[in-house]
Write a structure and sequence with these properties.
- With 96 residues, this protein is an alpha+beta fold.
- The protein contains three helices and four strands.
- The strands form two sheets. The protein has a two-stranded antiparallel sheet with strand order 1-4. Strands 2-3 form a two-stranded antiparallel ribbon.
- Essential for spermiogenesis.
- It holds the Pfam family Meiosis_expr.
- It comes from Neodrepanis coruscans.
Amino acid sequence: KKSEVSGAMAKAEIKPKSMYRAKTWSDDVENLYRFQQAGYRDEVEYKQVKQVDVVECWPETGFIKKLQRRDNTFYYYNKQRECEDKDVPKVKVYVY
């Protein structure tokens, strides 16, 4: 019975309480930008949809290295910043 409960917990969707737009660039905004480019809200949603525990990151910068889209194609990202200043206000930051 215990495994059924934990399985149900993993499937339960965690919904954000609120959302705001990023105003300045940061490492977190960079990673959110990458998730949103690939069609996900953030790391929480990506892990729920793709059933993965770890997202591949660049060891040097901590930025996301690759993401799998919902249609199973992959997005590969550079080690350097990709979210330009003009794109920062487009990034949605979710609060749980």
